[in-house]
Amino acid sequence: MAITEMLSYGFMQRALIGGSLIAILCSVLGIFLVLRRLSLIGDGLAHVTFGSVALALFFRLYSFYMTLAIIPVVLVSALGILKLAQRARIYGDAAIGIVSALGIALGVMLASLSGGFNVDLFSYLFGNILSISRDELIIAAVLFAVVIAGVLVFYNDLFASTFDEELAKSSGIDTGRINAILVLLTALTVVLAMKVVGIMLISALLILPAATALQLSKGFKTAIVCAACIGVCTVVVGIGVSFSANLPTGATIVLINFLTFLTAFAARSLIRHR
């Protein structure tokens, strides 16, 4: 199928625009998360999103209203991970694991009460960017603006906290607030990303473009720009390949990201050996 013919479809246009916006968000935030060793928070929040989706479906909320309903639940859960790590005196990965397990358990329980796993729940588990609606695209654009504005406003504090949190704290930066902002921005991005690659693969979209960019870039800002470009390119190529070959879109995007990472890793290793 010709590219011009593919782009003539309204659903394809919405998928490419929405997918590109979400890819940029995941890639930019992914740089901060990977360097701070918080990559698994995306996976934990994805499991919470699964529980939230099951809850929304239990109350017969769909599409636009579902997204609006699950955003506050995931935001509260993101803050819960931070508070649990601080007050329960446990490591961050343990807090993520606790909240993650709770989200999965809640989702399975609600799915069981509502008559088992159905087509709607599976579409959110594995993603279906080609079915993104106009209302969902508007939500994605608004949240994209919110997250990017948040990163730009708090960039210096995020940068300082990423490389040396203790030094940042001693310099007068409220690292607790910065950590909260980072996880809240990540939570918003996770909610958006579930439509692109699905709940089960969200962490890959947060980690792989960032990890690839870190193989290729030397500076921090360069890594952010590189990650955003990689994220957009892999999502656009993934959507095109999945549509042409009739393959699952989310899985295709993740596999292309992984191949891109392997290529970058191999290229860096080859340059080092020379």
Structure described in brief:
Helices cover 82% and strands 0% of the residues. The chain contains 13 helices and no strands.
What number of domains?
Answer: 1
Q: Give the % helix.
A: over 70%
The topology string of helices and strands comes to HHHHHHHHHHHHH
**How far apart, in Å, are the first and last alpha carbons?**
42 Å
Q: What is the annotated CATH architecture?
A: Orthogonal Bundle
Rg, rounded, reads 19 Å
Shape label: globular
Structure description:
The chain has 274 residues and is an all-alpha fold. It has a single domain, classed as Orthogonal Bundle (ABC transporter involved in vitamin B12 uptake, BtuC), CATH 1.10.3470. It is 82% helix and 0% strand. It is built from 13 helices and no strands. α4 runs antiparallel to α10. The model has no long low-confidence stretch (mean pLDDT 84).
